[in-house]
Structure formats: structure tokens, C-alpha cells
Specification:
There is one protein chain. With 337 residues, the chain is α+β, with helices and mostly antiparallel strands. The protein has one domain. It contains 7 helices and 13 strands. α3 packs antiparallel against α7 and α5 crosses α6.
Amino acid sequence: MPATDEDVVRDLLHRYTAHVHPPVSIAVGVLARQRCRDRRRKVTSLAAAGAALGTAVGVFAAAGGHQTSATGGPGAAGRRWPAIRLTADQRVLYRLSSVAARQPQGQGRYAVMSTEGDDVKDTSVIDSLTGNMWSFQQGSDGSPSGKSFSAGYSPTSAQFAAMPTGLAALRVALIAQWDSQHKSAFAPLRSRASGTGAIPVPRPVTVSDDDKVFQQASDMLWNPLVSPALRAALYKVLAAVPGVEVNPSATDGTGRLATEISRVDSSGFPGGKSDGITYATYDNPATGAVLESTITYPPGSDIVTPQDPRGTSTVVDTTVYLGISWASSVPADPYGG
């Protein structure tokens, strides 16, 4: 039975905590490189950070309308309270959550995922027991073909299953993981050289908890090892993140009907302007599976291409997810390499 608005908000009220971490400072150059990690399965970037685990609880909407109090007791008669209403976007995300929760768990040790993006086709094989990944790539127009192996690339199915699905606990755990991942990556750049003089430290960039939440959730949704319960929780958490926009009538790059979930990142220099990077995921409204993910870098966001070495153009990094199957052993290179 679908949850009513009041049921949904009661759930959020029960689980929500106002836990907020202070903004962190990170090096600008490293942040740009970290954002480039999204071409996760290219042979040239398989050493990038593994699947991020992230999601968040934020705010919920309360709009007009009244209802008579159902509680008894002195003074209760005739008392009127605001009726709670979800936004249209939140309703769509809760429907996605419900659909995702009903999907079966994948059967088989190895998840085989086919993707394409830019000038490559890619087949990734993830071991659900170890998190190891084999990647087979067919390149074109200057992109290389080849294959690679990454040990422990993804969390295992057991690790995903151990993640909390309570919204507040999931938010706290995954923001903490974002901080931990980035602390280890950025720490060396915060040191100063000795003997030959100090190396200037780049101006810090502020990253809000909501930025972390959306980036982590977007990175997590594509992983085929994520359990239906956890995927369902991710959609509920995204429904509570401020700034999330939902288009239930979108299509992905291949023309498939999709629900687009996007957010403009607010990261930027302290007291300065956001760099305006937009993260988006396109999800199957019938299953909750990811069909496509994109990162749109506006001009001036430190992303350059051979055609635009000064970074004056908009760059869109796209990954299209074509299909997932399961196997009992690692398949041969589908591209004949």
C-alpha cells in the first residue's frame, strides 16, 4: 500500500537528526581531479577511487491546508494543525524508492555491466565477494582498447548489505565516509616543502554536506551490488536533499524513458561563487536502475579538453548503462582482446 504524505514525513521525523558537519577545506587541484574520476571504467582511469557510498537526510516540505486534531484531551476539540504535503519531486522519488525495493537481488557471483560513453564501450565484471573488478574496453577515435584488473575496486555485496537503511544513520555514515576518503587523498597536498622553501597551498574549496550527499548517492546508485533495500533508501534520502530537481519525463542518451535527478553543486571558494557543476542521474522508472549518469562542467570549472585547452566551453561527461547480467565465472573479453 503506498505511503501517504503523513506516513512519509512521520518516517522522516522519526529517523531524522540535525547532525551537521562543518565544511571542509580541500585543495582546488585535487578536487578537480577527483571530479574527473567518473570515467570509472576506462582503462586509463581504473585506479580512480572506488564506488562511493553516500546519501543524506535533509529537509521535507510542509505546505498549506489544515486538518482537525485527532487527539483527545482538554483543549483538543476544534484544534487545527497544518497538513503535511510532499512536493511533486519528492513524490516521484518515493515512487522510485518503492519500485526499487521490489526488485530481486542479483543472483550469481559476478555482476557483468555493459556501458558506453564518449568514444568507448566497456564491460565491467565485479566480484560480489571480493569487490575485484575486471574491465574490458573497446575504444575508438583515439581512445584506447584494452583490459585491466582492479583489486577491491567496489564494496562487496556483504558490505553494501551492512549499510544502514535508516535515513539518519545512512546520512551520518556516508558523509563521514566522504570525509574519510577525501582526507586521505588531499592530506599530502596540505603539507609544505622544507629546505627549498614552502610550496604555496591553493585556496580552499568549501563542500557542504548536501554536496557530499548528492555526489555520493549518485556514485552509489549505479553499482549493481547495491541491495534493493539500500537502493530504496537512497531514493528516499535524495528526496530530502535541498536543491534536488526531478524530471519524470526525461530520456537518456539512447532515447529510453527516464526519471532525471539532478543538482547543481554549491562547492566553491569561501565567500565566492559556486563552480556550478551539475550532477545528474537518469533512472528507470520501472525498476529504479540507473540508465545514464552525467556531470556537466560549465566554462571555468578547471576541466579542459584537447579541443578547448583553456576550459572555456561546457564539458559533459556521460556514462550510459546498457545492461547488467550475472555469471558464475569471469567471462572472456567480449571485444576479442
